[in-house]
Amino acid sequence: MSTEPVPAALIFDDPLDQPSSDDTDTAWGDRPTPADSAADLARFLDEKPPHHI
Fold this sequence. Notes:
53 residues; mainly alpha; 1 helix
């Protein structure tokens, strides 16, 4: 005798009540910015355009 698994129930909550993963700066690729000159240099080197080599 096999028992059928109970299908997952649909959830009808309001989807706008919860923040989505792209509502934060981290989801957009931003990282927390430390306030020192080494971090500024690292950010400049990471984000400089290719013609600024």
